[in-house]
Request: fold
Amino acid sequence: MTTLTGPAAAVLGALMLAAFLLAAGGAWLLVQGRDRRRAALMLIAAAVFAANVLIWTV
Reply:
């Protein structure tokens, strides 16, 4: 496992925060039944962000 410090750790932290916010926003749009295409794109972006963090940390 790689130990990241400094700016790299901050960028990965910000990326995970963005992934959580995108997932929450996409789920909220799906529950509301509004703009399903945008909700799906938000959920896909969240999955890509999370996958990128996994790639860089594992």
